[in-house]
Amino acid sequence: MTDWKDNLPEAAKTYLDGRRLDEVECVISDLPGIARGKAVPASKFAKQDYFHLPDSIFYQTITGDWGEAAGDDGFIEKDMILKPDMSTATAAPWTGDWTLQVIHDAYDRDGEAIPYSPRNVLKRVVQLYRDQGWEPIVAPEMEFFLVARNVDPAKEIEPMMGRSGRPAAARQAYSMTAVDEFGPVIDDIYDFAEHQGFEIDGITQEGGAGQLEINLLHGDPVKLADEVFYFKRLIREAALRHDCFATFMAKPIEDEPGSAMHIHHSILDIETGQNIFVGPQCGETDAFYHFIAGLQNHLPSGLAVMAPYVNSYRRYVKDHAAPINLEWARDNRTTGIRVPLSGPAARRVENRIAGMDCNPYLGIAVSLACGYLGLTEQLRPRRQFYGDAYEGEGDIPQVLGQALDMFDGAKALHEVLGPEFARVFSIVKRAEYEEFLQVISPWEREHLLLNV
Hints:
Elements: H1 10-16, E1 23-29, E2 35-41, H2 42-45, E3 51-54, E4 79-84, E5 90-91, E6 99-107, H3 118-131, E7 134-148, H4 176-181, H5 183-196, E8 200-205, E9 211-216, H6 221-240, E10 244-247, E11 261-269, H7 286-306, E12 328-330, E13 337-339, E14 349-351, H8 360-377, H9 400-408, H10 411-417, H11 419-436, H12 442-448
Parallel strand pairs: 1-6, 12-13
Antiparallel strand pairs: 1-2, 3-4, 4-6, 5-6, 7-9, 7-10, 7-11, 8-9, 11-14, 13-14
Helix pairs in contact: 3-6, 3-8, 5-6, 6-8, 7-8, 7-9, 8-10, 9-11, 10-11
């Protein structure tokens, strides 16, 4: 009988070569993107085909409270069946023993996919493309900050101390000297990524103080979402080794740029393998324009998923490297939709709206869903934009409450993502938003206490 470890990905086999596997972390992403699951001894994992977790993990808010999940028959906390996807098995190299992580998929007792599990939502959208004869390809870019340890929520977040002994400086985009300041953290990020079998396309200094960007190679949307899910944990662990925090908040520091998860998209024809954005004479096809139109028409309704917290909307500020509208242009980073410079075969469309605080499965799923609606509706986008898009008006929701209202009314988008997912997501996000509205901020105490 074949040992299950013989079917591991090559990177996991290399990591364990000559060593005894101690533990397996069986994980699944909840709605915020937090890894939930169980750690089990390797000997037990070898004997189990699945394990159980309650479906209530998908009703839990970022603060640990619960959305009001009751339907017509009330809320019954049911056990899900979680089955491993062994293609996702990868090292957890920061642990003290030899540990693997394995992402699981969620099913009900009838073997049906749980519709509000984020990985299942993305799989649903990808399958809709494949049903049309298309293969979606994405490439995410991850922005994040390395900051000083912060254990007091009342204290402002500060940049981390670099190896020079000075705080990380802002306005140093693409500076190699700035990158060198974080050298020890970056070395661990590279080492962890190599152990896990992930290929980094590049690391650059961004415009914020202590802000970095990691680019990943393009590929299958589910595989890339898995990597972003893993990378968030990897980067946090690397930072902790050097007495600092890694944060993926959309806007952690006042007057600094926010952190985005830019998503590049192209679509291949499954039968021919050709990019459907490229015509016979290397020109731009109707499908190219339909995809852009889908982003323009439907991203405002999907913004609550790509910008899921009240902090997310602090990022959309003029002249702070984040878009305020959904104009599209070629090689123009002021617009929400950008067509990068490339040869015809690599023609792609970049969504610059999504924040790094979103769940990677859901952020990619919504972006692809909007493009899918554009391809099937076959509408044309607005005319290409020229100039500085920050000089125009914003056309995306400005606060989470407005974004949730738009999401709740987006029935076409719900059909692509799954109506049951849309229902549960709205329940959880409204619970978070209502909890936030009960908190009195320092700004209110400073300016309203004695003046109104």
